[in-house]
Amino acid sequence: MKKIFFITAILLMSVKSFSQGSADYGSGMKFNLNEDGSKYMRFIVWNQIWFRSGEMNPGTMIGNEATTTGTDIGNRRLRFLAYSQLSKRYMIVTHFGINNQTFTNGGAAGTTGTGGYGAGKKPGLFFHDAWNEYALVLPEKDKKFSLSLGGGLHYYMGLSRSTMASTLNFLTIDAPIFNWPLIENSDQFARQMGLFAKGKFGKLEYRLSYNKPYATNLVPANAITADEAVAVDNSGNTKWSKAGYFEYQFLDQESNLLPYKVGSYLGTKKVFNIGAGFYTAPDGTRSSVNNTISKHNINLFAADVFLDLPLGNKTNKMAVTAYSVFYDYDFGPNYLRNVGIMNIGTADPGFTGSRALAGAGNAQPSIGSGNIWYTQAGVLLPSAAEKPKVRVQPFGAFTYKSFDALDKSSTQFDLGTNFFLDGQHAKITAQYSTRPIYTTPSTTSGSKGEFILQLQIYL
Questions:
Q1: Which UniProt keywords apply (predicted)?
Q2: Considering the domain boundaries, does residue 113 fall inside one?
Q3: Are strands 364-368 and 65-85 parallel, antiparallel or unpaired?
Q4: Is residue 48 situated within a structural domain?
């Protein structure tokens, strides 16, 4: 922990310049293909590097050694995105990269042990997005209505604003993960292959998609009674899913050129939106009772509200950002997924105490049939200087989870601060997070904490 705070101090002392929107960045790496700029290509690249120190769940090993704590540095996201419009109607989007590389895992398939392809080394690049899009009704032709159609591997997954969040401008250090309820099961890193429609009607923005979920084949454990049945991801001959999100934008209108929703505008816009969405997939999970298999539909619903406004005197450049979302998830009876981001822990076979129900490392109950309420808020502190060296944005987040598979609900929080060196283009984020520790469905043994320091740069 002392090392991490030392690194933070060094980085902050090295700051020499700041601008709210990054005057150096401008329009970014954009290459016009004609004189008026209506034909162009744009590239966006970003790295998010994490330094971490945290408490491990009971019954954890790291590198075959029992431990209660862990520290590391890892690559949370290394990405490259390119999109191009050869006319106002046609657009192509390609997005690839890697995620979650640590010193023990996240490497290429089959990497293990020691050597050139040892544990955690040489992760394989893969596509996050790849779609083609056609603007059927251009917004400038009809100011009240626009419509674009597209298809491919896409991010128009409906449900909530944060289900389609940009990873470049989070308010907190990262998404809470349950905003991507299918993550790496029936989707490819929060994406599915399918068709989508997007557009606006006045102040209403809409997104709809029709998708073919990736096949899943987990085998359900056999239960004696229906109350004990546990649904798992098993879609068989996968049926098409449907998703949608509708958002009314009361104040400034947000761009919908790309699907990625902004997490914090830093007061550069006046935004107040209310939204609601859904995701449904027939026969997406299965359970077994007395060796009789039952299929279950996946039905997910959400409603949210987003606020981002300047505060007080304009010369102070102060702003508030807030977001709250409620999820109602139904994956089938007692469905529960435990997730640990960049989890470096493994199960200790020699542990004799009460193990964490979620497993080893930093895993926690993250996604399941039940309800989740999540709220975050932050304030961009005032600055009298015309070109301040650094802008500071403290934030906090609160999560309430009530899953059918667990007898007790849980609460947890995140507290942190963004240090903007050059707007969202270069920032350092420090965050402390808690997670509940269940030892049985009805028993908790307090919580564990994790400190994360992130250095983000995107161009």
A1: Signal
A2: no
A3: unpaired
A4: no
Task: Identify the CATH number of the domain in which residue 366 sits.
Answer: 2.40.160
Q: Band of the pLDDT at 19, cuts 50, 70, 90?
A: very low
Q: What is the pLDDT of residues 403-449, one digit of tens each?
A: 999 999 999 999 999 999 999 999 999 999 999 999 999 999 999 99
**Nearest CA to 220 among 211, 228, 209?**
228
d(CA 166, CA 169): 6
Burial of 219 (0-12, 13-18, 19+ CB in 10 A): exposed
pLDDT at 142: 63
Domain containing residue 200: 2-24+56-72+142-458
| Predicted structure pTM score | 0.92
Q: What does the pLDDT look like over 347-380, one tens digit per residue? A: 999 999 999 999 999 999 999 999 999 999 999 9
SS (H, E, C) the chain: CHHHHHHHHHHHHCCCCCCCCCCCCCCCEEEECCCCCCCEEEEEEEEEEEEEEEEEEEEEEECCEEEEEEEEEEEEEEEEEEEEECCCCEEEEEEEEEEEECCCCCCCCCCCCCCCCCCCCCCCCEEEEEEEEEEEECCCCCCCEEEEEEEEEECCCCCCCHHHECCCCCCCCCCCCCCCCCCCCCCCCCCEEEEEEEEEECCEEEEEEEEECCCCECCCCEECCHHHCCCEEECCCCCCEEEEEEEEECCCCCCCCCCCECCCCCCCCCEEEEEEEEEEEEEEEEEEECCEEEEEEEEEEEEEEEEEEEECCHHHCEEEEEEEEEEEEECCCCCEEEECCCCCCEECCCCCCCCCCCCCCCCEEEEECEEEEEEEEEEECCCCCCCCCCEEEEEEEEEEEEECCCCCCEEEEEEEEEEECECECEEEEEEEEEEEEEEECCEEEEEEEEEEEEEEEEC
C-alpha span between 418 and 413 (Å, rounded): 16
**How many domains does one find in the chain?**
1
Smallest Cα–Cα separation from 298: which of 314, 287, 288, 283? 283
229 domain-assigned: yes
Distance CA 344, CA 123 (A): 16
